[in-house]
Amino acid sequence: MKTASAKSAEISLAHNEQERLVRLPQVLKIIPISRSAWWAGVKAGRFPQPIKLGERLTCWRYSEVLALTK
Q1: Which of 3, 44, 60, 65 is deepest in the core (most CB within 10 A)?
Q2: Dihedrals φ, ψ of 56, to 5°?
Q3: 31 phi and psi, to 5 degrees?
Q4: According to the model, what pLDDT value does residue 51 have?
Q5: Residue 53: inside a domain
Q6: In a domain, 4, yes or no
């Protein structure tokens, strides 16, 4: 039987996994469409908006990408 702290650690780990950021190649492995189709969907508002971490670094929240598959 797991202790309360072990259960808490598992919940925390699962939460961190959901809140991680993913780059476009990782997104396209989850949602198998072309890069141009992805960007068209972002522009149209069908897909999540990106998070700009720098001039040439764009990411998405993993949880938002997973929500598209449901």
Answers
A1: 60
A2: -125, 25
A3: -115, 95
A4: 96
A5: yes
A6: no
| pTM beyond 0.85 | no
- Which residues have C-beta within 8 Å of that of residue 19, sequence separation ≥ 6? 61, 62, 63
Which residue would you say has higher pLDDT here, 25 or 70?
25
Neighbours of 53 (CB within 10 A): 11
* Residue 51 contacts residue 60 (beta carbons within 8 Å): yes
More confident residue, 2 or 39: 39
Please give the tally of structural domains in the chain.
1
Classify 39 as helix, strand or coil.
helix
Domain that holds residue 32: 20-68
23 secondary structure, DSSP code: -
55 falls within a domain: yes
